[in-house]
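Narrative of activities, Objective 1.

The group set out to show that a structural description can be obtained from nothing but a protein's sequence at a throughput compatible with the screening campaign. Below is one input-output pair from the validation batch, recorded exactly as produced.
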Amino acid sequence: MRRPPRDATPAARLLAHLRRAAPALLAYAAVRVTGLLLLTLWAHRQHHGLWPILATEWDAAWYLGIADHGYTHHLGTAYDANNLAFFPLYPLLVKTVAVLTPGTRATTGLMIAVAGSFLAAWGIHSVGSHLHGRRVGVLLTVLWAALPVGLVEWMGYTESLFTAFAAWALYAVLTGRWLWAGSLAALSGLTRPTGIAVAAAVTVTALLSLRRGFTARALAAAALAPAGWLAYVGWVGLRLGRWDGYFAVQRLWHNEWDGGVETVRRLREVLADDSTPELFLVMVTVTLLASMALYVLSAWDRQPLPLLVFTGVLLLIVLGSGGVYFPRARFLLPGFPLLLPPALYLARASRRFRTLALTAAVLGSAYCSAYMVLVWPSAP
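Output recorded for this entry:
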């Protein structure tokens, strides 16, 4: 497909960009619908309602509670009970959009998540195709859709929205759109705690670019990128009347950073100490180990600096946390650049091998995702 001429309108350029991404978006939808069909059949056999699973349980309930009642004013002493641990952009969007649309806020939240997933898939394709061509862009998108916890992308969670901000911020950096990069990084910092990883990628790359010549836009992006994360953390401190308010909240959620001590303990427990580990915990463990290996391969392949900084900081946060173990595969879901090495490998492989590998990944994702919400007794 030909690129639009340089004098094309912004709308024409956007439409052309969307057309180039159409195969990736269709493939993404096919993967997610496959997982949803299996989940529907499995849930029906268990006489379990599908809607609560997707829209109202676990973290979704916390975000809906914030949209309905706002944030608490006190730290308290109860563990796993303070809603200030949840960043504000998603519940704010739910509250705002629900005023303009029919249905419940749960419906609105789910629709925002699904829409965010397609924006994320578009951004992921854009990064992959910009670096290595359209085939790799499509494969990268499909691999992201087929992650073992891929169902979360279509639940009332923040991962889809956050991944969209992260992917487009990284694409903006790669294409030299500094103000877009800084703004999107700031929005990611209002969406999830790991928004600081996006901010680090933008800020570090922008500051290093100044060595080649000063530009006000790069400097502005470096300053703007962490603003969202810092604003929320600062606001929580003011609300609770203590400078470490946000970190005190995280301690009540057992999310202190211990440099990886708890992660190593749980890895050893699942791999060596427990003779019959729970299947979901095995999947989380494999995901963590695979992510570390893929980061080494990404560095070996000399991925662009912003991608390495983003995934490096994301891994540092997730692996270095002393918090709960089982959601860590979900926490790593936005780290799509880690999938570039397998996407490049599949792009060079035979069509038969590529088809078999992708089919196995899609079916495995569908099974693991359904197991995650129908058998595993805790949050995804």
